[in-house]
Amino acid sequence: MTQVLILLGAPGAGKGTQAARLCAARSLAHISTGDLFRENLKKETPLGKRAKGFMDAGQLVPDDLVLEMLFDRVAKPDCQRGYLLDGFPRTIPQAEALEKRLGKPARVTVLSLVVPEQVLIDRLTGRRTCKACNHIQHMLFSPPKVAGRCDKCGGELVQRSDDSLEVVKKRLDVYRAQTQPLEGFYSSRKLLLEIDGNRPEEQVFRDLERRAFGGEAA
């Protein structure tokens, strides 16, 4: 039975880091919808050309086309043991469509990283990027040795516009409105496992791995 992991969590919850670790530890394919778009567009596949038509017209790519790309990808040999979905589903209609396409044979586990909102804000707004070498430091977790200067090259550290408080709050609002309802959707199906994401990275990873592959359900 194919293992399908879905990782939920607000921006700043640590999904990217933990997704990469889980996939490496368990030999799972890491399926990012963003990567799927880029690959299909670059290779000019039939699916990519259809997606480009919507994008060029300033429209969202329809969910059924996203699913076609997704299932074209998961049909490949490296997904037979299982895969982790990164960035999909984002809405309840997408989750319903995915459920329909997956059918019964898949074993679906949904992991939700729970982190207090203020911690998310601190994580996201604390990032600083070097203008010279693009090295990233964090005012809380890896503060520069010299204020405002990159530890690597001494370049100026700046806050990117998408890490500003205003933008971060908007991103969190969008997540709450569009994606957070998935927690109730999957909880009603007894598939949701909540993980405390407000701990050191190693502790979160060990808990995710234990819960995802230990057969424990909330």
Radius of gyration: 19 Å
Low-confidence stretches: none
Largest sheet: 5 strands, parallel
| The CATH homology group name | P-loop containing nucleotide triphosphate hydrolases
- Return the structural class: alpha/beta
Total number of distinct structural domains: 1
Please tally the β strands and state the result.
8
CATH class bucket: Alpha Beta
Please give the count of helices: 9
Q: What's the shape? A: globular
> Any idea what the CATH architecture is?
3-Layer(aba) Sandwich
Distance between the termini: 21 Å
Give average pLDDT, whole number: 91
Strand order of the largest sheet: 2-3-1-4-8
Strand fraction band?
15-25%
Sequence of secondary-structure elements: EHEHHHEHEHEEEHHEH
Please estimate the helix content. Answer: 40-55%
- According to CATH, the fold-level topology is Rossmann fold
Give structural notes:
The relative contact order is 0.17. Helix content is 46%, strand content 17%. The protein is globular. It is built from 9 helices and 8 strands. The mean pLDDT is 91. It has helices at residues 15-26, 33-42, 46-56, 63-74, 92-102, 117-125, 165-179, 181-187, 201-213, and strands at residues 3-8, 29-32, 82-86, 107-114, 127-130, 136-138, 157-158, 192-196. Helix 6 (117-125) crosses helix 7 (165-179). The protein has a single domain (3-28, 81-213), classed as Rossmann fold (3-Layer(aba) Sandwich), CATH 3.40.50.300. The strands form 2 sheets. It has a 5-stranded parallel beta sheet, with helices on both faces. By secondary structure, it is an alpha/beta fold. A hairpin with a 5-residue loop joins strand 5 (127-130) and strand 6.
